[in-house]
Design a protein that fits this description.
three-stranded parallel β-sheet, Solute-binding_3/MltF_N, Transporter substrate-binding domain-containing protein, disordered N terminus, D-Maltodextrin-Binding Protein, domain 2, signal, alpha/beta
Length: 237
């Protein structure tokens, strides 16, 4: 009888030891998707992937990194999945596998009120601030802008306020948060992203089971009142 209990105890310990805790990479400088509030990680992405993980009985922990460091960390095995407002494009698809879309993004171009800029056609050869590694960086380059990249969007807003930039390109929801806090800033153009929208990402060819579980949970969760409440909480439409 003792041997049976011992074997059962060893089995339970082994099962606990083998229970995977997936590391979720987030860049907490992209409100309302990813941010620090009262010293705690917060935002739409944080609550969304937490809800999906709970639905699938998956354990997760969060690792905070700069946005441009997320894919390198994923490739190096330091994190297992990215949940940080990342938009898919062909270049990124060479390195990572994306989940289904959870938000269709738009890019907002903002300026100082006194600026004469009125359309994205006018940003060619202008200094446009973008967060390093974002879809806005790719798009602004295509439009011929002189790119000024920074890891922190707040730094870009400070540069715009000090007239060191002609414009800043950000996700529309993120831009709206900064406009609310800076009365001298306005949007002068809004463009729907040509790519597929915001998605979770895993290392290419790896963690496919995790990706499948996230997609399954996302499909179910998007039809719930809880998802609608979460969108309303962060002003996501």
């Amino acid at each position: 009888m003792k041997k049976i209990f011992l074997a059962l105890f060893v089995f339970i310990l082994s099962a606990c030891a083998d229970e995977k805790v997936y590391k979720v990479g987030i860049s907490p400088d992209y409100p309302p998707f990813d941010m620090i509030v009262d010293g705690k990680l917060s935002g739409f992405d944080v609550e969304l992937i937490s809800a999906l993980a709970k639905m699938q009985n998956i354990k997760i922990s969060f690792s905070t990194l700069s946005f441009d460091a997320l894919i390198p960390a994923l490739k190096a095995g330091k994190i297992d999945v990215i949940a940080s407002g990342m938009t898919s494009n062909e270049q990124r698809k060479k390195s990572v596998d994306f989940s289904d879309t959870y938000y269709l993004a738009k890019t907002s171009y903002i300026k100082n009120k006194e600026s004469s800029l009125s359309s994205i056609d006018e940003i060619k050869d202008k200094k446009v601030g973008v967060q390093l590694g974002t879809i806005q960086e790719f798009d602004a380059k295509k439009l011929g802008a002189k790119i000024v990249s920074n890891q922190d969007p707040i730094a870009l807003i400070l540069m715009l306020n000090n007239n060191k930039l002609d414009a800043v390109a950000l996700d529309a929801l993120v831009a709206s948060e900064f406009i609310k806090k800076n009365e001298n800033l306005v949007e002068f153009a809004s463009v729907a992203n040509e790519e597929e929208g915001m998605q979770f990402a895993v290392n290419k060819g790896k963690n496919q089971e995790l990706l499948s579980k996230l997609n399954q949970a996302l499909a179910e969760f998007k039809n719930t009142q809880e998802f609608k409440d979460l969108c309303d909480k962060y002003g996501i439409k």
